[in-house]
Write a structure and sequence with these properties.
Strand content of chain B: under 5%
Largest sheet of chain A: 5 strands, antiparallel
Strand content of chain A: 15-25%
Oligomer: heterodimer
Helix content of chain B: 55-70%
Order of helices and strands of chain B: HHHHHHHHHH
Radius of gyration of chain A: 22 Å
Structural class of chain A: alpha+beta
Number of helices of chain A: 5
Distance between the termini of chain B: 35 Å
Distance between the termini of chain A: 62 Å
Mean pLDDT of chain A: 65
Largest sheet of chain B: none
Helix content of chain A: 40-55%
Largest interface: A-B, 61 and 86 residues
């Protein structure tokens, strides 16, 4: 249904019509991008919005974010040792207001606290921070002289021998 | 962040009202208030109706601005979660206003949040993206040749001009809704849109090293 009774524009220039056709084509391409499960994932996020916060986890294979029946996977981009996993897990746990968490041998599972209005984006940020930590630790251990490892690792140096 | 599947769509060669694209899914302006009230009361079917009606339009607008499929989908999920909380807690939505404009306003704000986060994290993000590029094949979506120059031109368009083009053509909003959303008079919105289209056309027609290869 078209709510709009206002002309789009005067179309005095035929090139305007061509441009609007191109914009319509682009809009269709964008709207057609998500796969068939897109609406289900969005609906799932809505239906679980009041029930539980998103869950973030990190293990030796990478990070996972779960919200309702939706699941996102951020694979580990690098091989990393226990130090990196522990650091990443701690970052994940420290980054989220959480209603529950577990932490063993560098793996972490964090249930976000919905009372803090923690959104999927907040959890995603925490997961990415954790992944970045994995990367930083890996580069640090690999002795990459170009990388300033100090900033990313300073908070861990007191407690963990890397 | 999550896997997405490349989907193609038939293209329209006829200039038409962007609002036409939503006809099949739109619950209708007379039915919409009842659907929104039902959703606020927790009716899952009502939520499905709203998600089907708006999620892909919100995605298209977010995708255009962010350039990332994963971030655009996350934005849409966040928007609906926020809408759900605000509706069920009876806060944030005034029935006298347009539900659609409200939903798009939440989307615009969320998109701006994402852009802000990107800026503050730029250094780290470059680092990890470099790592991804070297460790996995590129996940950048192939762009249909016909729209590639348009997308490049949109990237160069200024914020306000780009916003009105995206709301109108990617979000499929009507001019009155855009006026309500932006708090601008309808005439101003029409004039802004007309100017933005002209700027966009000029950008497309101006050869650049990257768009010359797309020219016939």
């Amino acid at each position: 249904m078209n709510h709009d009774s206002t002309p789009i524009n005067d179309h005095e220039d035929p090139r305007d019509a061509e441009l609007e056709s191109l914009l319509a084509e682009n809009a269709e391409l964008f709207a057609g991008e998500p796969d068939a499960g897109f609406e289900d994932r969005v609906f799932s996020a809505v239906s679980h919005a009041e029930e539980t916060g998103p869950i973030a986890s990190i293990d030796h294979e990478g990070a996972t974010l779960t919200s309702g029946s939706s699941r996102w996977r951020l694979p580990a981009v690098i091989g990393t040792g226990a130090a990196g996993l522990i650091a990443a897990a701690l970052v994940l746990m420290a980054s989220l207001p959480q209603s529950g968490s577990t932490h063993t041998d560098g793996a972490a599972v964090v249930q976000a606290d919905t009372s803090m209005n923690t959104s999927i984006a907040d959890v995603t940020d925490a997961v990415i921070e954790a992944e970045l930590t994995l990367l930083e630790v890996d580069l640090f251990l690999a002795g990459d002289s170009e990388f300033d490892a100090g900033a990313g690792l300073s908070i861990f140096n007191d407690e963990w021998s890397l | 962040m999550h896997p997405v599947t490349e989907t193609t769509s038939s293209s329209s060669k006829q200039a038409r009202d962007p609002g036409e694209a939503r006809d099949a899914r739109d619950p209708g302006e007379h039915v919409l208030p009842a659907v929104v009230r039902a959703a606020a009361a927790g009716d899952q079917d009502a939520w499905r109706t709203l998600v089907k009606a708006y999620s892909r339009r919100l995605y298209a607008m977010a995708r255009s601005r962010l350039g990332s499929r994963a971030e655009a989908e996350e934005v849409v999920q966040d928007v609906f979660m926020a809408a759900s909380r605000m509706l069920t807690q009876d806060s944030g939505y005034d029935e006298r206003g347009s539900f659609e404009a409200w939903l798009f306003r939440i989307t615009m704000n969320r998109v701006r949040d994402v852009i802000r986060q990107r800026k503050t994290r730029a250094k780290h993000r470059e680092t990890i993206e470099d790592s991804y590029r070297t460790s996995t094949s590129s996940q950048k979506a192939p762009v249909a040749t016909s729209v590639a120059p348009l997308r490049e031109a949109l990237e160069q368009l200024g914020g306000d001009d780009r916003e009105i083009i995206e709301l109108r053509h990617h979000g499929g909003m009507s001019f009155p809704q855009i006026a309500e959303l932006t708090g601008s008079p309808l005439g101003t919105v029409l004039a802004r849109h007309h100017r933005a289209l002209k700027k966009l056309r000029t950008l497309i027609e101006t050869p650049t090293p990257s768009n010359e290869k797309h020219q016939p």
